[in-house]
Design brief:
Order of helices and strands: HEE
Helix content: 10-25%
Number of strands: 2
Number of helices: 1
Strand order of the largest sheet: 1-2
């Protein structure tokens, strides 16, 4: 259970950064166990 409060800006900021970098966010949540966020970035190989 969360005991501190944030400003609510974290996830919108991460979403914006991921959109700029053409990435995506995956969210996995289990009741009573918490939530996991997976950030996937596009990797471009040069050559």
């Amino acid at each position: 259970m969360q005991t501190t409060r944030g400003t609510g800006l974290g996830l919108p900021l991460v979403k914006h950064i991921m959109e700029i970098h053409h990435g995506c966010i995956q969210v996995f949540s289990k009741s009573g166990q918490g939530t996991t966020l997976r950030l996937l970035f596009l990797v471009i190989q040069q050559g």
